[in-house]
Amino acid sequence: MMAKIPSPCIGVCKYQRGDHCIGCSMNKDQKKIFKSLKKARMKQAFIKMLCAQQDSLGGYGHWETAYDRKCRKEKAVPMAET
């Protein structure tokens, strides 16, 4: 069975940092891309890229905790294991 990997979206969805969401750092195109990914390894790679993007943009220290909480709630693979 393939491990479930939820969207990096944490339900904030406010684009107040240029075209990046203040919750997860994705822009609208990146949200569409993540939804189109089917393979777990592609989703894992996307999340790693997103973490690097968050580091580059700064101000996303809240995301990892919120995403881990989302993963636990959805009984999915925690970010630390991706």
Give a short synopsis of this structure.
The protein has 82 residues and is mainly α.
Which key terms come to mind for this protein?
mainly alpha; 46% helix; 82 residues; 3 helices; single chain
**Total helical elements:** 3
Radius of gyration from the alpha-carbon trace, in angstroms = 12 Å
Counted beta strands: 0
As residue ranges, the low-confidence spans are none
Quaternary organisation of the protein chains: single chain
SS-based structural class?
A: mainly alpha
Strand content: under 5%
Q: Strands, helices and their partners?
A:
Elements (H helix, E strand, L loop, with lengths): L27 H9 L3 H18 L5 H11 L9
Describe the structure.
The protein is mainly alpha-helical and 82 residues long. It has a domain at 38-81. Helix content is 46%, strand content 0%. It has 3 helices and no strands. The chain has helices at residues 28-36, 40-57, 63-73. The longest helix has 18 residues, at 40-57. It is globular, with a radius of gyration of 12 Å.
